[in-house]
Each structure stands twice: as C-alpha cells, then as structure tokens.
C-alpha cells in the first residue's frame, strides 16, 4: 500500500541526516521503531513542534531582563517577576551566580510579610511593623507612608514613622527611616488608625556644581526643584533638591569631590566637612609612594 501525500527531497549531509534521525527519535516521530524524518518535518509544519532560536542571547539582553525582574519586584508585581525569572532559567547562557540567584528567588519569590507591606502601600493604609534584627533587638514602627526604594543596589523600605528615637538624621528628617529589607527575616504587621501621608519628610538642599560635572549633570526630576546656571558664575550650575535622607545624599555628593559644593543648609554642609576632615586624618599619616 502506498502512502498518500507529497514527497520532497532533502539535500543534507550524512551527519545532518543522522542528527535529524536522532531528533525524530527523541521526539517520538517514528515509523515503527525507526526514526522518521518526514514525520518530524510534518510536525514542524503543523506547529506541533516549535522551532526555538539557538541559545545565543547576549549578556546585555539577559542583564536587561534581570533588571526588569528586580523592577517588577520593587513595584510589587511578584507574579510578573516570576514569569521573567522562569523565562531566564530556560536559557543556557546564564552565569552560575545569576542562575543561583534566580533559583533562590523562585524557591521563595516573596516573603509573606513583604507581600503584606506592599498591599498596605497600595491601599495607603497606615500600619505597624515589628521585627527582630540579627542582634536580637526588637524594632517597632508605626508607619504612615512607605515606598520600596533602591539605594546602592539594595532594596529598602523608605518610610515616615511616628517614632524618632534612635534616628540620627537632621531634626527635620528624623521621622524618615530607611529599613534594609534583606535584613528582615520575619515581621509582624498590623493596621493602625489614622491618615496616610503624601510622602516622606524632606529638606531643600542647595548645591553648586562646577567644571565637567556642571555640564554632565542630569536633573533628578522627582527631587530637583531648581536646575540653572548662575548668571554671575556662568560655568557653575545651581541645583536645589528635596532630600529625604541626609545619609544617602552625603554619600552621593562625596563621590563628586571638589566639583560639588553644598551651600545650604548649614547642618548638612557641616556634616560633609566633618566627613572630609575625618578622611584627611585617616590619610594624613600614610606615606604616599612616589609615582
């Protein structure tokens, strides 16, 4: 009995033919117990089998997808972050550290307390947060505003709290706390009565940028209130920014060295001067090797 259907001729090497037969056998496309290339091609044509690209994703594409995953986590979209992680784990191009990180994430996409905090934030519901740190000290905060933020590649809960005890920031900013999320292993969360604030406490800070930094600076659109060239010093850029944590602000401006000067408020200017003096004292006793 002859088979009905159109016949085609494939011009392939013996090596490619062997590979096709091996693939047909692997995917169950056989005639009896022998691999059948025709059935393999028919299944592909009917989209019973999907042809996928080779595993040749660039490092840039993988990094961009992983960055999207972390952004989704920050936004509280855990299900979407899981979908991206699953997509990445199907790839063979991942580095071992990234694969380990993704597998850990998939094993525990989000702690129940983290999901609950994000739920309170979306509902704009004040809440009480209690947890114990690694030193077995119990912390308790009554939070009336919170947002998930990234500082130096780590995730934090930036929040406005009724509590100020132990906060060493400037008086205007002492209601603001910055809690590192990966140091909270478990937490108790409960709703509290009262209003949700519009944001963190903030303080206007004026800085002057000079030389190359003045031309390279890009405005922090969510914080900068003024970004202009000084008329009496045409190569100096004046920036006024709302600052919510002096700690992170000082760490940022110290990177710019002498190209960035804090003009006001005096309290932050003094703290920066103290930090620079401490650095000078650290290095003053060191012998500088000849160049």
How is this structure best summarized?
The protein is α+β, with helices and mostly antiparallel strands and 291 residues long. It has helices spanning 14-26, 37-45, 59-74, 78-89, 96-107, 112-123, 211-216, 246-254, 266-284; strands at 30-31, 34-35, 127-132, 138-151, 154-161, 176-180, 187-191, 203-209, 224-229, 237-243, 260-264. It contains nine helices and eleven strands.
Question: What does the model show?
Answer:
The protein has 291 residues and is an alpha+beta fold. The chain has 4 domains: 32 residues; 52 residues; 79 residues; 81 residues, no CATH class. The strands form 3 sheets. Strands 6-5-4-3-7 form a 5-stranded antiparallel β-sheet, with helices on one face. It has a 4-stranded antiparallel β-sheet with strand order 9-10-8-11. A hairpin with a 7-residue loop joins β9 and β10. The chain is elongated, with a radius of gyration of 29 Å. The termini are far apart. The mean pLDDT is 84.
Overall spatial form = elongated
Q: What series of H and E elements makes up the topology? A: HEEHHHHHEEEEEEHEEHEH
Integer average pLDDT: 84
Strand tally: 11
How big is the Rg?
29 Å
Q: Tally the helices: what do you get?
A: 9
């Amino acid at each position: 009995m002859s088979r009905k259907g159109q016949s085609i001729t494939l011009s392939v090497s013996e090596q490619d033919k062997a590979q096709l037969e091996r693939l047909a056998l692997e995917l169950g496309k056989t005639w009896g117990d022998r691999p059948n290339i025709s059935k393999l091609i028919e299944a592909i044509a009917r989209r019973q089998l999907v042809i996928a690209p080779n595993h040749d994703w660039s490092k840039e594409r993988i990094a961009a997808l992983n960055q999207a995953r972390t952004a989704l986590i920050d936004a509280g979209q855990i299900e979407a972050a899981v979908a991206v992680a699953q997509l990445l784990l199907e790839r063979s191009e991942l580095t071992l550290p990234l694969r380990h990180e993704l597998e850990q994430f998939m094993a525990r996409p989000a702690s129940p307390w983290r999901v609950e905090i994000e739920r309170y934030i979306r509902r704009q519901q004040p809440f009480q947060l209690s947890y114990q740190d690694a030193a077995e000290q119990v912390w308790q905060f009554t939070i009336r505003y919170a947002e998930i933020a990234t500082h130096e590649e780590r995730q934090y809960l930036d929040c406005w709290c009724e509590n100020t005890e132990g906060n060493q920031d400037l008086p205007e900013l002492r209601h603001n706390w910055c809690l590192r999320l990966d140091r909270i292993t478990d937490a108790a969360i409960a709703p509290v009565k009262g209003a949700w604030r519009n944001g963190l406490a903030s303080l206007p800070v004026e800085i002057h940028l000079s030389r190359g930094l003045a031309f390279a600076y890009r405005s922090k659109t969510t914080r900068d209130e003024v970004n202009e060239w000084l008329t009496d010093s045409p190569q100096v850029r004046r920036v006024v920014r709302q600052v919510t944590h002096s700690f992170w602000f000082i760490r940022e401006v110290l990177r710019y060295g002498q190209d960035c000067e804090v003009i006001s408020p005096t309290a932050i200017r003094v703290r920066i001067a103290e930090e620079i003096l401490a650095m000078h004292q650290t290095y003053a006793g060191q012998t500088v090797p000849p160049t």
